Amino acid sequence: MKKIHNLQRKNLEQWTGFFYILPWLIGFSIFQLYPFISTLYYSFTNFTLLNVPSLIGFRNYIRMFTTDSLFQSSMRITGLYTLMAVPGKLIIALGVAMLLSAKIKGIGLYRSLYYLPSILGGSVAVSVLWRVMFMRNGLVNQILGVVKIPPIDWLTSPNIALGTLSLLQIWQFGSAMVIFLAALKQIPRELFEAAEVDGASKIRQFFSITIPQISSVIFFNLIMQTIQALQNFTSAFVITNGGPMRRTYIIGMKLYDDAFKNYNVGYACAESWILFMLILVLTALVFKSSDAWVYYSDEGDHK
Amino acid sequence: MKKLVLLVSILCLIILVPAFAAGSKENATQPSRLQTVRVSWWGGDARHNALLAMIEEFEKQNPGIKIEPEYSAFAQYRDKFTIQLTSGAAPDVMAVDQPWCDSIVKQGDFFLNLDSYADELKIDTFDSYLIDSYSRFNGKTLFLPVGINGMGSLADAEKLTPYGFDINNKDFTWDELFALAAKVRTANPSQYLCVVDSKQASLYYARVYLRQLTGKQLINDDGSMGVTREELGKSFELVDRCYKEGVFQPIRESAVYNDAMTQNPEWLNRNMFMILGRTSVMTDTSARRPINGAPTTVGYVLPQLPNGKESGIEVRPAALYAINKNTKVADAAIRFLSFMLTSEEAAKAIGSNYSIPAREESRAFAQNYDLLEESSLENVEYSLAHAGNTINAWSANPEVEALFTEIMEKIAYNQYKNMLEAADEAIARINIIVSAGL
Questions:
Q1: Chain B residue numbers touching A42 (CB-CB < 8 A)
Q2: From the list A35, A48, A68, which residue is nearest B19 (CB)?
Q3: What is the DSSP letter of A207?
Q4: Which residue, among B60, B70, B68, B59, has the nearest Cα to B36 in the 3D structure?
Q5: Residue of B20, B252, B254 lying closest to A259 (CB–CB)
């Protein structure tokens, strides 16, 4: 009798748990899972938003890799952007995290201040601000002018514009920084003390203790930031609108243009699936390589 | 274990890749006797205020009808419009941009045939050129124009007169434009004659010149090229010359003001003097650049090619209005549209917020209240008298337009050895766009 009662209770508990996550499940299914599956279906159709989509096989995918030179150049530009923005952001985030892990007065305030750009960064308003700051007669050039550096066409020079967009991404280092900061705090102090006793320099300590100890967090940040960079849209859309000469025409912008300007929604879905696959493959590769360079403190017992 | 949790959470996050899906929503109807009509449009603040005032007047005269306005800027409107239409959530009365019509009508039956209400809407009093060219599809009147746009220019006549500019010379040619620009430059090398962005350079320079030169469509209805590479090359040469001879400001300085060229400080400071464009630029208060309340510019003609095959002037509706085919309040919607397009009160409220009204009577109403600026009215009349061919769907295709904008940028950044190379690139890429769309 008691056994049956226990079983019922366990069942009820399971249902209670399910009930708790139900709101999330519903939201996830409607707003993510359903659109996600729909895009896969639409990617094999000629959907334009207005028509009744009909299946056209792999034609969208074939077009992407054969005739659509813009897709290929967008992918290249997105790759370049990621290569500039992600390492830059990680280095800055780690650097600032190291500075902010120091024990000085008012450190909480500094930490909040440095986190601010991340709260604001993805918004249109900041992109507009960035645009005004980097104009030919904007704030940045005015500051450079004080030290006699001639004005730089941050947004309109075909060779510089993408770098300027990367700077905006790098500037939003806050979230990566906070994660680094937490990781730095977790490193056992005695490791540094032992190293100091052995006469290791600060640089040696950094490379031999800090980096290996936080490698799992570097790994996490690397993946998250890469995904974020590959999916960027707002800054290119607002600041340069893909120009000059489509040198900042990242894949997020092309997706948007194809879907909502040219009404090739089926094609845009196919492109987003290729982007998804690319992110998946990149993530898998980083995971694969992680065995060689990522250290997990809780795995020591099993090895 | 940590790795597994990490992998699962990351996979979940990746699913945030932009996804496109259409929801569905039933058209709202009011059970009460008060009928609600949803009306949507795009525009700037001036237009919003004018239309809201017009709606207030309408509601006063029609106490049984409540108007629910939905308005936004153009870019947001365009994004929302198609999704609303396809998901059945479209408003009862909606503004439609002319270039969208052809492709929307081809893809489905979304709009009410207005011919059944021809008398109430006074369809026969609209400019017949606009109705024939832009309102009728498959023998049905689906859209009605609210205003007319011709093409011309906006000129700072006061500043340009010392350089020999004559506002009364209506046979202004491209050669005269270059000569004027040279004088402007000689007088002060930091001045430029024309404000432009890459899209405008394509639409009002290269494309206009190409039509004047050939009298043909850029792309034929069957998708084949309508012009030769040499002709295309010549139209690109015009833009190339404009950059090289300082008609335009160097692109490195001007590109930041793409899509907002009247915000360019050089224009605001009266160091640039002309804008080529549609009539709406002449009625747009901000483009007219008022200083101490008085506009500093006046409407003028579009430069011509002597012995050109046509004027290059495209006359088209400033915006069209349509009624949702599935509206539950068709009679109220028709009454509103009729009020908006034909009544004196509406003409008074709207003024020149949709360029020049598309009906002669509405023009007269607005003129009575002194609401239409003389030179823009003149421009519409001139444009109607000298209109070139209407531009077909392929030639106005947004992908083709984006391609031309890109080529203009490349010309400005000196990326081509000669303009035939640019023409070859344009033709090759147009063929790809056409083959994907056929």
A1: 20
A2: A35
A3: I
A4: B68
A5: B20
- Closest chain A CA to residue B80: A260
Closest by alpha carbon to B204, among B299, B270, B301, B287? B301
d(CA B345, CA B362) in angstroms, rounded, equals 10
Distance from CA of B406 to the nearest CA of A (A): 6
| Phi, psi torsion values for A215, nearest 5 degrees | -60, -35
Residue A217 sits at the chain B interface (C-beta within 8 Å): no
Query: How many Cα atoms occupy the beta-carbon half-sphere of B319 within 13 Å?
Result: 22
Give chain A's domains with CATH numbers.
Answer: 43-302 (1.10.3720.10)
Give this complex's ipTM. 0.81
Q: Got the DSSP string for B106-167?
A: HH---B--GGGGHHHHTGGGB-HHHIIIIIEETTEE--EESEEE-EEEEE-HHHHGGGT--T
For residue B286, pLDDT over 80 is answered with no
Answer yes or no: are the C-beta atoms of A266 and A43 closer than 8 Å.
yes
pLDDT digits 0-9 by tens, A134-164 = 988 889 999 999 999 998 999 999 999 999 9
B66 CB-near residues (< 8 Å, 6+ apart): B30, B34, B35, B36, B37, B59
> What is the structure's pLDDT at A247?
92
Cis check: omega of the bond before A244, within 30 degrees of 0: yes
Distance CA A171, CA A117 (A): 7
Who has greater pLDDT, A103 or B353? B353
> Which burial class, exposed, middle or buried, applies to A278 when counting CB atoms under 10 A from its CB (0-12, 13-18, 19+)?
middle
CA gap B148, B314 in Å, rounded: 10
Whether A251 has a pLDDT exceeding 90, the answer reads: yes
What average pLDDT is seen over chain B?
Answer: 88
**Tell me, what amino acid is at B152?**
G
- What global pTM score does this model have? 0.84
- The percentage of chain A sitting over the pLDDT mark of 90, rounded to a whole number, equals 48
- The confidence score (pLDDT) of residue B13 equals 45
Using CA of residue B208, residue B213, residue B217, residue B220, what is the dihedral sign? Answer: negative
What interhelical angle do A107-120 and A124-133 show, nearest 10? 100
In the predicted model, is pLDDT for residue B138 greater than 80? yes
Residue range B287-305: average pLDDT? Answer: 88
What is the distance in angstroms between the Cα of B428 and the nearest Cα belonging to chain A? 10
* Cα of A8 vs its chain's centroid, Å: 45
Q: Which residue has tokens 């747009």?
A: B284
Residue-wise pLDDT for B144-193, tens only, equals 999 999 999 999 999 999 999 999 998 999 999 999 999 999 999 999 99
Report DSSP state, residue A151: P
Q: For testing the chain A interface, which of B17, B266, B406, B414 should be mutated: the one with the most A CBs within 10 Å?
A: B17
CA dihedral A6, A7, A8, A10 (to 10 degrees): 90
Backbone angles phi, psi at A55, to 5 degrees: -70, 135
How far is residue A10's CA from residue A260's CA, in Å, rounded to a whole number?
Answer: 50
Question: Lowest-pLDDT range, A232-246, B82-96, B285-299?
Answer: B285-299
